[in-house]
């Protein structure tokens, strides 16, 4: 479907940046909020981000003004009547989002697409309050959306293929990297990241380690560009807690983050935004201070295994449930979580037989959450051991 004009509903942190992306791509966009002060703030933010591009020589001042004219800042229903797509970015509450979807359903042309930027709520439950559930999908941008390139395009149970295809094409027009995901709690990136964060949190408590210990090993062993505790503090521990609760309810104990995260949230230690989380940010530098007693090499190896294999296991579950293919999962984890390699490419490199043996040992110690997935066992049985045999999750020249 050709998208000639877009509406973004909710002009907060995410909505303002999403509208910016459309303006930069020269696609007319209405940025809608119920609060005109927030619209003024969004306008200022978008201008600042564009000025940044001007300063880098990527945009002339005249072009900046033209792009800014592509955005209509509005509090009025009438401005939504001729849009082909609305992306909702109001606060994360299902009843609120359902109310917004009903309004959009009433206002927009019958074939218009209604999309949600939700991080964790069900697209199908939003679709079900409209009379066009087949034209409802998720379009999940990542923070900060003016720089992060991943967009998870989420298909609900009734979403038309034409709708996901349109959102994929449109994301590409925005110079983003779309991956299609069949709906499940946490989609790809949050589900895989939270599985490894919960594993690391439990490991930290078992072994009485500090966040510095763990973040130091995770970054020096290049498992992730950012330690999980620096990342959680940046994200907001309240957000991490809410997501972990949703995922624990959906998938069970493997998403149980242990006691510390909840305790920090109850004390209102929410990370960078409150000056205290796993780290203290009271000093002027806002950089976590590095200590510390290094972990012994056995502990380090155990951390590496638990972090990376928890990630691999969750990615394998997504694959086996048919939520996304291995390529999409790897792309999502690189573009959305900054990993140097996706979990399947990393497994191919390490050797699928090696991973299989490690998982066997881990499942004996920790139970089912590390039982080798059948998609791995079948490959190993067929002699597909990854890069060294030319075939694993991907194909290689040997
Ligand atoms: N902030 C993030 O890091 C992030 C990342 C990815 C996805 N998300 C998701 O994006 C959505 C928005 O998050 P945010 O952080 O931008 O929230 P926010 O609180 O910054 O902004 C929400 C905006 O919606 C407006 N709003 C409320 N009711 C409205 C209505 N009926 N009509 C129009 N506008 C209305 C509010 O005035 C506010 O400006 C949430 O679903 C969140 O889960 C957030």
Structural class: alpha/beta
CATH class of the largest domain: Alpha Beta
Number of domains: 2
Structural Rg: 22 Å
Largest sheet features: 8 strands, mixed
Order of helices and strands: EHEHHEEHEHEEHEHHHHHHHHHH
Cofactors, ions, other ligands: nicotinamide-adenine-dinucleotide
Strand content: 5-15%
What is the CATH homologous superfamily assignment of the largest domain? NAD(P)-binding Rossmann-like Domain
Shape estimate: globular
- Please give the alpha-carbon distance between the first and last residues: 42 Å
Q: Which regions are unreliable across 5 or more consecutive residues at pLDDT < 50?
A: none
Q: In what order do the strands lie side by side in the largest sheet?
A: 3-2-1-4-5-6-7-8
The overall pLDDT average reads 95
- CATH architecture of the largest domain, please? 3-Layer(aba) Sandwich
Provide the helix percentage.
Answer: 40-55%
* CATH topology tier name of the largest domain: Rossmann fold
Instruction: List how many beta strands DSSP finds.
Output: 8
Number of helices: 16
